[in-house]
Amino acid sequence: MTAFAPLLDLLADVPDPRRGQGQKYKLPHVLLFSILAIVTGCNSYRGIVTFIDVHRHRMNAVFGLKWGRAPAHTAIRYILKGLDPAEIEVVFRQHATQLQAARATPGQGSIALDGKTLRGSFDNFNDRAAAQILSAFATDTCLVLAHVDIAEKSNEIPAAQSLLAELGVQDGAIVTLDAIHCQKNIWGRQGSRHRPDRPAQEQPADPAAERRGHLRRRGAAQLSPQP
Fold it and tell me: CB 3.0-4.6 Å disulfide test: which of 47, 49, 63, 156 passes with 42?
């Protein structure tokens, strides 16, 4: 219980999307057990319920609960889908800050920024592209300090600048980023929602059509009478 007490205290500040009456399962424990289930490999609401069912007696003893059974998967789904992602991100950042302060070695380590596409997050039915997330990783403690969404019509550059500002990274800190950030006038692009211009290399819209046109021109040149 002691190890999870700080995280439970932070999760208690997350607004509960449910009505105040008849809450059999307290939100901080539902969120904590869902996090533990996902960390162990569960990737569905039913998987979270299975995790709670398997470990229910032990978690009752550790956390002083009296859960007779796990919440239904529909209840888990309703709770998780009703949460505000921004509120959850605040809690995760606060928890990461506490862990970083307790484990970091002064003068060592760096922050690595990297963007990833969330597998399975695309939605063809609603014509929504896969979500992209930029993470800040502390190399000395192996902790993810924060996440930020990358706008659909943008790229990592403005997201990285925003994330570094939110984390309050001090001057002189070591930050590693991808090569996309090695561009001129990078601050002028901060408000832009468009991807940076590529080098001046015009590519044909249809390479196969371009090749067919090249072959036709070549054949015509060979058949033309010589002067």
Answer: 47
pLDDT for 122: 80
Higher pLDDT pick, 224 / 49: 49
Q: Would residue 149 count as lying in a domain?
A: yes
Instruction: Flag whether 212 is in a domain.
Output: no
Three-state SS for the chain is CCCCHHHHHHHCCCCCCCCCCCCCCCHHHHHHHHHHHHHCCCCCHHHHHHHHHHHHHHHHHHHCCCCCCCCCHHHHHHHHHHCCHHHHHHHHHHHHHHHHHHHCCCCCCCEEEEEEECCCCCECCCCECCCEEEEEEECCCCEEEEEEEECCCCCHHHHHHHHHHHHCCCCCCCEECCHHHCCCCCHHHCCCCCCCCCCCCCCCCCHHHHHHHHHHHHHHHHHCCCC
Mean pLDDT of the chain: 82
Residue 192 pLDDT more than 70? no
Residue 168 pLDDT exceeds 80: yes
Cβ contacts of residue 186 below 8 Å, gap of 6+?
A: 157, 161
> Torsion angle, CA of 120/123/129/133, rounded to 10 degrees?
-40
Prediction pTM value: 0.72
**51, 30 in Cβ contact below 8 A?**
no
Cα–Cα dist 139/112, whole Å: 7
Taking residues 126-140, report their average pLDDT. 87
What is the number of structural domains in the chain? 2
Residue 132: φ, ψ to 5°: -120, 135
